[in-house]
Design goal:
This protein is α+β, with helices and mostly antiparallel strands. The chain contains three helices and seven strands. Strands 1, 2, 3, 4, 5, 6 and 7 form a seven-stranded mixed beta sheet that branches. The longest helix is centred in the middle third of the chain and has 13 residues.
């Protein structure tokens, strides 16, 4: 790798859903002062598989304990620091829920009905993932 190339950052996350009162809801997180609504995700740690990282990040950011259902399409983009980034995504079903306390990463966790989630999400790829789940 030359000094001009930057190693790809790999993150993992999930579209976490639950059924409540006959409706399907997904977990969204609010990040930053501008309240960017997005799906929970984070960097894959050393010695950790992307699937393990996705489950860990979702639990840390939302309080949701989940089971993986299937892998979803990856996202590829350049992050704010100019590094290439790949995000591996999974559809996840909620199995246990703890209350998330706001911290320096996540300001708020919100469970939102599928159609409302698509409208609220800040990023096009996140909207596409949720819309794809809604169509399935």
């Amino acid at each position: 790798m030359s000094t001009f190339e930057t190693k790809e950052q790999v993150s993992a996350g999930g579209v976490v859903y639950r059924r409540r009162a006959g409706r399907v809801e997904v977990a969204l997180i609010s990040v930053g002062e501008a309240a960017r609504w997005q799906l929970p995700k984070g960097l894959v740690g050393r010695g950790e598989s992307p699937a393990e990282a996705a489950l860990r990040e979702v639990r840390e950011e939302t309080g949701a304990g989940c089971r993986l259902l299937r892998e979803l399409p990856d996202d590829h983009y350049t992050d704010r620091k100019g590094r290439p980034k790949r995000v591996r995504w999974w559809l996840m079903e909620l199995v246990a829920l703890d209350v998330h306390q706001p911290d320096d990463e996540v300001d708020e966790v919100r469970w939102v009905q599928l159609g409302d989630a698509v409208a609220l999400l800040s990023y096009a790829h996140d909207r596409g993932l949720v819309a794809g789940v809604a169509d399935a």
